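Weekly structure sync, notes
Attendees: PL (lead), two postdocs, one rotation student
Agenda item 3: pending single-chain targets
PL asked that the sequence for the first pending target be pasted directly into the notes so everyone works from the same version. It is reproduced below exactly as submitted, 194 residues in total.
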Amino acid sequence: MTDERDKTAWRAEILARRKALPAADREREAAALAVAAAALGDAEWVCAYVPVGGEPGSLAMLDALRAAGARVLLPLTGEPGPLEWAEYTGPEGLRRGRFGLREPDGAPVANGIAKAAAILVPALAVDRRGVRLGRGAGYYDRSLSACHAGARLIAVVRDDELVERLPEEPHDHRMGWALTPFGGLRPLEDRAGN
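Predicted structure, written out during the meeting:
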């Protein structure tokens, strides 16, 4: 059975569910994501993000990556287009960026996303084929074309946000993996994008 909702309907439903999630559940999920993310510490460079609003995760996820040996790059917000990336050195090295997002106060790392062996991508949902539902601004879709071919593209979602099928558009970049609080890191069915 196919779900015929469009992206706008999916976004509204997921954002409402995230808003209704009790704080204690968010904290349990954030702690579980930090443990699951540590497994990616075998990568020298990992692109990640600072979760905002109801997004799953916390700074603990970034700190776990660093503690496991990865150098963590976070996006710098700017005009619409591909994202620039700067190194996360800890909570004390963050400042308020555009849209109120927290980002590193250091200089951009040249070709940052191309250095990453793993890229944690915020998502509202991801389906089993790897189709990711973002917030609709397209920052990540414009940025992911610069990553190297072997990079693991990992959608970070709550366990119930890994769904059977989402609407897809030609510009969407498919994810090969999902990282969820209680399911951990798992490959999606179609990592080749077919």
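Discussion points:
- The chain has five helices and twelve strands.
- The CA atoms of residues 66 and 74 lie 12 Å apart.
Action: rotation student to compare against the earlier draft before next sync.
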